[in-house]
Amino acid sequence: MSLSEKFIKIPQYILAILSLIIVRLIRPWLQIRFEILYSTRIGHFTANTEMYLCESDAFINVPNQRYIDIFCIREPVCNQQLTTMWKRELCILPAWIVCPIIKINRLIPSGEFHMAWEKNRTGLDVHNLLDRMPSHLKFTTSEETLGEAGLRKMGLPKGVQYVCLNVRDSAYLADHLPDYDWSYHNYRNSDINNYILVAEELAKRGYFVIRMGAKVNGRLNSAHPNIIDYATNGMRSDFMDIYLGAKCLFCITTGSGWDGVPEMMRRPIVYVNMVPLGYLHTFSNKFLSITKRHVWRSSRKELTLSEIFSSGLAFSMSAKDFQSKGVELIENTPEEIRDAAIEMLERIEGTWRSQENDDSLQSQFWELFPNDALDAYSGNRLHGEIRARYGAAFLRDNPEWLQ
């Protein structure tokens, strides 16, 4: 920071000190709390913010007195449309006002009384609130009109249903936050070519498939007219990123940030190639998951479900963890991805028919799954009531995995 920049900040910190003195003095009558929204990453900007609002409505993690929460936005913002919509729900002030207050507040004892969500950093719905409460984000009439026009421009007839496809790769973070080494996240990436089969199967059934992504490494190569590679066709916008996720029939995702949009908007979601396994989204009956396979590099033997948990890899958050323990992650096959998506589709359509052992296999899976697990970073619970399902076809085809 240059000398001139330091001089500019002096008045900001003087204002922050004076503001904080007032805030501390009036706390017996009005508790004022501050927080920086996780605005640089769309998964946090959606899920953490929505969960804060849901918990506030449910009187969870809120003061026992009158209070006001004040937020700010941190640059670079991942999605400007989200900023616009959150400003309709939250008190958001400029960062140059709020950030100095937060910095000084953390240096003074009892600062935790003036932080808005110290107790909820994961953004996970451990109280199963999403199934009980409507979304806090709503489109205005003009935004609905704009969104429908966007769908027509993309070639979707009025009233047609579509599925969003979100496949994580390394492109977005490398472009959006280039000064940070994101390679530790590479274990979560997937090959877009493994999703052609599911996209074409859904297209054959009359649905449109829209491949999402702000920045991606490669195209979704299919000639089917119902498959739209929105991530690369030049039609992508911050607004349509949110609108598409809010209105889709369901979403197929590998568990990256954008899927916070359909989650926040209460859309059904199929999670494929999900890792780490212990972080499966379990808190809604609108969720269905399958995970990458874990294979010992030395013997090429696949780890059982119990071995994944006993090795600690079910909660590993870095590619180095898997490498150091000699485990390779193998992506789901195109057929496994297709089967999981079709199960979700048929459940939505009301045409799904369970087979004889499906309920037993589900029970075996969830009995081995540690629903009392804690997040290593925050110490908070990762799961509430288990409402999600694991892919039926995957369990039928791999009963030996359930050990």
Care to give the gist of this entry?
This protein is of the alpha/beta class and about 400 residues long.
Helices and strands, with pairings:
Layout: H1 3-25, E1 31-37, H2 42-57, E2 67-73, H3 80-86, E3 91-92, H4 95-105, H5 141-153, E4 162-166, H6 171-176, H7 196-204, E5 208-211, E6 227-228, H8 238-247, E7 250-253, H9 260-264, E8 269-274, E9 287-291, E10 293-296, H10 305-310, H11 319-324, E11 327-330, H12 334-349, H13 358-368, E12 389-390, H14 392-397
Helix pairs in contact: 1-4, 5-8, 7-12
Description of the molecule:
With 403 residues, this protein is of the alpha/beta class. It folds into two domains: 3-114, no CATH class; 141-401, Glycogen Phosphorylase B (Rossmann fold, 3-Layer(aba) Sandwich). Helix content is 36%, strand content 13%. The chain is built from 14 helices and twelve strands. The longest helix is centred in the first third of the chain and has 23 residues, at 3-25. The chain is globular. It starts with a helix and ends in a 6-residue tail after the last helix. The mean pLDDT is 93.
Identify low-pLDDT runs. Answer: none
Continuous helix count = 14
Task: Calculate Rg over CA atoms.
Answer: 23 Å
Fraction of residues in helices? 25-40%
Structural class: alpha/beta
Query: How are the strands of the largest sheet arranged?
Result: 6-5-4-7-8-9-12
Overall morphology: globular
Number of domains: 2
Largest sheet: 7 strands, parallel
Instruction: Please give the alpha-carbon distance between the first and last residues.
Output: 56 Å
**In the CATH hierarchy, what is the class of the largest domain?**
Alpha Beta
Count of β-strands: 12
